[in-house]
Give the backbone structure.
Amino acid sequence: MNYDEELRILLPQQVKPLQRYYLQNDQYVWVRKASNGNPMIYYKLLKILTVYIFKLPIFQPAYRGKNLAIIDEARRLNELNQAHISAPKLLAQCHNGLMMSDLGKGQPLKTLDDLMANRADCKMAIFPVWKMGIDALLNLHNKGQYLSQAFARNMIELTDKRVAFLDFEEDPANILSITECQVRDIVFYLLSTVHYFWDETDIEDALNYCNEQHPHTPPETLALFFKTVKKFKWIRYLHSPYLMGRDGKRFAKSIRFLANLLERIEK
Ligand SMILES: Nc1ncnc2c1ncn2[C@@H]1O[C@H](COP(=O)(O)OP(=O)(O)O)[C@@H](O)[C@H]1O
Ligand SMILES: [Mg+2]
């Protein structure tokens, strides 16, 4: 199969920025088309907010624009595959799009965010799914790798129960060190998951689990994690329902988790 040729034919027909296709060789693939997401001013403002106002440069946006995003994603997919990390395989690339393998091989797969949301709705324990995600993330870090946006919605559970990673349109290592990228991953993962914990037992399990992992974490990563969380842990005192709204409350809950974690590790 000539994937480059397929990509050249499919891209002009494509209506969505990301679409799945069924090819003649019985294979499902995904095609990402370079497309205008948020206007670049959005990223500039986010940079001012993270770097200059909150002085948390590790959270600055790393998106470089639609065509460079294709180059970044193609390179990251190759690097992750070379490091034997579960992510789609790059099949073809051109200036305005790329084609990658379908991790579900035709089957729809659930993201860890879907799984945690379902469990929260059914009042089931969140910790087992949460642990799958953090284990997969720490394993990837041990291999010297990092993600783009380590949110639970960019992690999917494969049919063999392994976790795979998606969505690499930005490469934070263009502007940050590997240690900074990895701390950013851990904070993003925690911020995108901890709000699902509806039960104290889950929170305790997760705090204990993180605490158990910390002796295996490189000292420079731990130091930067501490420094980062210390800068924003004051947010946990923002309780007022009038001030916060639903997202705000979720955020404050995650920050309380991070602050508790810090206290536990420092003990
Ligand atoms: N290569 C792939 N294999 C399987 N599913 C995919 C693949 N790429 C995208 N998806 C599906 O599309 C969704 C959105 O993909 P993502 O790369 O996160 O795009 P977006 O830029 O829209 O966030 C994923 O949650 C997943 O369900
Ligand atoms: Mg995504």
In short: The first strand starts at residue 18 and ends at 22.
